[in-house]
Design brief:
By secondary structure, the protein is α+β, with helices and mostly antiparallel strands.
Amino acid sequence: MAAAWPDSVHAVEASQVWGVPAGVPAPATAIKTGQFTGPAGPEVNSIGHIAWDGNDYVFAVLTDQNPSDVYGQQTINTLASLVYDALDSD
């Protein structure tokens, strides 16, 4: 599955490793994060592919109306950790 993603999502700078890979014990196979200030405040997004525990997971978290970029990143990190905790408990 990772081969279908553009090369740019495979070469992730360390400062950009937040969001979808948060809380997963395996490194992200591909990730795209982004943030910009929209008319209602910061919009912060994270989309990624994780190959973990013999499974492939692809999911996205899109947020808007965040009080700050950091708040949006922390929200996505928390949601991603909750998802992986739930998957790991199976």
